[in-house]
Every structure is written in structure tokens, then in C-alpha cells.
Queue: 2 jobs
Job 1
Amino acid sequence: MDTIEANQIIHGQLARMGEYDKSPHFYPENIEFVKSLFTNFFDKLLLGPQSVLSDCLDLGCGTGFMYHILQCHDLDNYVGIDITEDMLSVCRQKYPKISLEIANAEDLPFSEHSFSIVTSYSFLDHLDSPVKVIEEAYRVLKEGGVFYSGLIPNAEFSFNLLSASNSSGQYLWNSYEHQLTREIKAMYNNGAVYAEMYGFDANILQQAEPQKTQHHGLMIDDTINQLKEVGFKRVLICPNWFFGQGLLKTNLEQMKVVDNFLKSLGPVSRALFKYYDFFAVK
Ligand SMILES: C[S@@+](CC[C@H](N)C(=O)[O-])C[C@H]1O[C@@H](n2cnc3c(N)ncnc32)[C@H](O)[C@@H]1O
């Protein structure tokens, strides 16, 4: 079975069970975070949202997470593509007016310079390699267009956690041992975690997420190099969800202070963040 087939089986099952939209990235705090990311990006590049959001293509759109994020900007045109029909059916029920197509993001059925923004969320780790998709995103983007990708599992975070869990010293302050064990279990046995929750075949799940299964995620520097090699002129990286953030949810103000502080340290703190997003400008 190849990666695409594994994805169709897993995402088809999740969509039919009505479980997909219960994924953590649909929680209100994450939706607020992704919305604020776009506002910050437009401010930083001094772009008005309308200059970028006139024509949007969403890769691996699933049930329409990115449409939910961007619809407040009055999108002129939004096209979602996915390889799993059942995910698109859920999306169609939620947003009957948008344009959805079955297509493989590694071989897009659109001509060059068609879109002003290409998005993909919780997607790049479901591919054997992100390179073909980066090339395709570049090809279909107009000059000055933007490729956004979000919720990319950060391999540096995984390696950081592994070395922490192998550390033999005792620590004067350490309140997060339980969290560490849980993260490591999910990292090594994500298939088993899903098998337990939904009765899935663990091997198929592992096959649907080759970047997580084989490499513990993607490396930020590899992603930057791949984007630049394909021709993107500017790449902005945004790490998100620092280790232990979920435990601070009861104190949102405290969570924001820690989050802003860690992010202000730039590349120095990036191994503390479980995921990263990027904006790449053509
Ligand atoms: C984890 S889901 C993300 C869905 C949505 N973007 C979200 O954030 O909720 C990954 C989606 O990518 C789709 N997918 C996987 N490989 C694909 C490919 N090569 N081309 C298009 N879609 C793909 C899957 O069918 C699935 O719907």
C-alpha cells in the first residue's frame, strides 16, 4: 500500500465516523492562533489581506479547516483539493458554495501563475517528501504570491525530547515528567495511540504519516532550504505549541506571556516547539 492509499483509508474512516473535526487543531485557542498568525504576517510584510487572498488554493483541504480560518477575509475565490472523497463530502456539507476537487497535491491540475496564495495545514508530514508539493505550490503561484503551511511536526522538538528523556541526571525543578512520557509514547507509537482510540490498523496510520514515522517530523532548516532552492525569495518561520503549553491552558494570560517570550528568542528556542508553520513569498 502506498502513502496516498493509506491516507485515503485513514482520513476516509475519520470523516465517516464524524471524528475528524474533533482533532485538537480545531480547538478555539488554535483557531485564534492561526488567525493571528495571518494578521501578523500581513502586518509584517505590509500587505493588505486582499492583495494576497484574491485566489486561494488549499492543498489537502480535508473538511475545510483553512477555509474556516480565511473566510473572515472575504475570499474572492477559494479552491480546495484533497485525495479523500469522504473528507471533501464533509467539507461540502459545511461549506456548500466553495469549489472542491479530488486531486493529488504532488501533481496539480492547474496552470502556472493561477493563485495568489496556496495553503496547506496539517499536511506536509503526510507526504513521502514535501519537495514535489513545494515545487507545485511555486509553479501555480503568481509572482509575489504566498505559500503558507501550518502544523508541521518539528523534528528538532522530537530530538530534544528524546535527549531529555535519556538524560540520567536529576533535576531540581521538573514538573513535566508525565508530559514528556506521553509525548514520547505518541512520537514512537502514534499508530498504537490511534488504534486504541478508534480501532484503526496502527500500521496504516504510521504509513499515512511517513515524515513523522520515519523522521520524527521535518527539520526547519531543511524546509527553508527546499523552499529557497525551488525559488521562494523570502521565508518566515513561525514555531508554535511549546512543550507543556496544553498544561497552561487554564491560565491563558500566563500561556501568552511564555509563548511570546519563547518566540521572541527566534531560532534559539525553536526546539521547544512541537510544530512550526511557514510563509514563503514567491
Ligand atoms: C491531517 S488532514 C488535514 C486536513 C485539513 N487541511 C485540516 O487541517 O484539517 C490531511 C489531508 O491531506 C489529504 N492528503 C494526503 N495526501 C494528499 C495528497 N498527496 N494530495 C492531496 N491531499 C492529500 C488527506 O486526504 C487529508 O484530508
Job 2
Amino acid sequence: MYSQMSSVIRTALLVVDVQNDFCAGGALAVPQGDRVVDPINRLLAASAAARVAIFATRDWHPLGSSHFMGRGGQWPVHCVADTPGAAFHPLLRLPDATAVVSKGQALDSDGYSAFDGTLPAGETLAAALDQRNVDHLTVCGLATDYCVRASVLDARTGGLGVSVVREAIAAVNLKPGDETGALEEMRAAGAALVSLDEALALVGAGA
Ligand SMILES: [Zn+2]
């Protein structure tokens, strides 16, 4: 069934928040966050070769964000716009054609979902996907239980098909079971949890 679908769907690759502050040594490091970089680089290369559209989200917070501890939020200060912590992981090989989606830019925005973000020209992710006739997202990145989860659920609400790449995501697990719960929630919403090989075949089929 899956291979039949792949011939008719038009996917885009969504890389969520592979930023220094979410990786080893960062202000809000996701346990084993760095391990997503290699599989994501393979997905990026396959997507670029097949001319599949690539979107990379980033947390891009103002220093005074209500998302931070001491200002009403639950997180240490992280991914402040234009700081090294907000930069993409240095080993992440984003092709030139990657569309960067910045989120959490307003003082009162958590920006968990890619669909809360905007591209450099100001359009929303939903508008950019629509413009490219994308009807499916191949999702990878950080963190499974926050921004990946929120982005996947919003994509499903918006009617998009979603494949989440298991080897290319990692969870915060603030509470034990958060990862499992997020995976279950995404699956219940109709997202497919796929292997890296399945995802490579999907994006390799082209746009
Ligand atoms: Zn954040």
C-alpha cells in the first residue's frame, strides 16, 4: 500500500530544529540529539537529488520570550535569534535551496509548531507548501515530544500526509514516557512512523 501511495504523493522534507542549543553542549540539549544529524544528512542529499522541497525550521526567540523560565515559561533561555546557540548544527548539510522557517519569534509565542513559523519573505509554511502542491511531509529532527510532535499534529490537521522518520528524531523526555506518548499521539492522528530506508525511498521517488 505504501509503495502505491508514494507514486502519487508529493512530499517535502521537514527538518525540525537541528540547532546548537538542542544538541550536545547546548542550552537545552536533547539527550542524543546529535545522532539525528547523520540520518538527516542522508535525507537531505536524497531530497536534493530528487528535487524534493526542503524546509528547515529553527527556534528564533527574542531574549524576553515568555517561553523562558522567569518569564512564565518552562525552558532555560535557548535559541535566541542571531546567537550561536540558534545556529544550525555545524555538521548539518543543508542544501542552498533549503527554505528556512523561523518560529517562536513573538514575545508570547512558544513556536513549537513549524506551522507557527514564517519563511524569509514572510509567508507561512502552509502557504509555501500549498504553492508547491505538497500534500505530504517527511519529518525528522528535534525534539520528538515538542516541536516534531506539534508540527506533525498541525500537518495532519491541515490535511497533509505525514511520515515521521524514527532514526532521525530524538526526544527530551522531561517525564518518562513522553517520547512513547508523543509517538502514539502522532500515530493516532494518522502519521506513519517509518524507517530511514523507507523515508529515503519515499523522497528518492521525487517530487
Ligand atoms: Zn523554544
